[in-house]
Amino acid sequence: MMLPLFDVIFVSDSREISILLTYLEFRRISVSHTKEKFWKEEKADVLIFSKFSIQLVEELMDFQKSILLFGKFESGLLYSMLEKGVSLVWETGANALFSFPLEIREEPGWSWVIFTQDRLFDLHLQHLLRAFGHQCYIETDFNLFMERLNSLSAEMAIIDWDVLGEELQDSVQRLKSYKERKQTMVFGIKDFEKTNLYRELSYGIQSISPLLFSKSELISVLLHSLNINNDQKSIPIASKRIQRVQFELQEKNKPIRMNLNEESFAIAEFQDLKESWEVDSYRELLKFLPLVFIKH
Question: What percent of the chain has pLDDT over 90?
């Protein structure tokens, strides 16, 4: 059964609504073009709006609806919605309708446990990981984060070291003890401009998370690292320099090691071009996320 990526579509150009409705109905998706004041009465799986407001975004988010922006939006409005937690943007609209991702990728995804205490960042991470078929568990308390790790035996974790404050040293020791028993791979978030940086690094945080990133860097790295088959060879049609993580997998798709590489990223990434285009379409859908967390 198809799990849709989104519940709501905001369309920038009302002239594209008819073709979008037809396409979604052809793909057997229950869809309705509605208005802001009537949406709660709708029974369709996907709702389309041609008129909307930031207030509507907030209301839909309160109801845990996943929103997709379809077409080109004025930059101020676009970033206002990104800052409210909208993650999915199909900027090309109907011009590339047949490569438009509709469903969560069917992959043997990993379980991720996240501790950052940043609601917006957590929300965007959740949308990114979910799109690529991964399970995501968010904890805002470190003790609950540790309980979740222990009960779940998660493959992956993300921790923001900067939010631990005076409890950092004790937290590192607790995670060291955990890592002696479990193989969870951990990504770390760290502000390298923070005071007391060297003292905090001396506590051993890189023994837990050898790879440390800013929030923007981490989202960009994940976007270019998830659902990549490292055994397939690139076809060098065109490329750009990116950072991505290569995961070494044990049987049953369990990650046991990861390495950060800077490399030329081919537009046609795989020998299987169909897989390449599909993965690239998901990257395209999420491409604005790193920009939300760049410091100005």
Answer: 69
Pairing state between β 235-250 and 254-268 = antiparallel
Largest CA distance in the chain: 59
Instruction: Assess contact for 189 and 221: CB atoms under 8 A.
Output: no
Q: Compute CA distances 100 → 89, 220, 287, whole Å.
A: 10, 21, 14
In whole angstroms, what is the distance from residue 114 CA to residue 126 CA?
A: 9
Centroid of chain to Cα 241 = 20
> In what helix (H) or strand (E) does residue 33 lie, and over which residues does it extend?
strand 31-33
Does pTM surpass 0.85?
A: yes
What are the E-state strand segments in the chain? 8-11, 31-33, 46-49, 67-70, 88-90, 111-115, 135-138, 156-160, 185-189, 212-213, 235-250, 254-268
Q: Please indicate whether residue 215 or residue 274 has the higher confidence score (pLDDT).
A: 215
Beta bridge partners of 186: 157
What's the pLDDT score for residue 239? 55
Contact present, 2 and 60 (Cβ < 8 Å): no
Q: Quick: pLDDT tens for 237-280.
A: 445 677 888 888 887 678 888 988 876 655 444 444 455 667 88
The Cα–Cα gap between 122 and 275 comes to 28
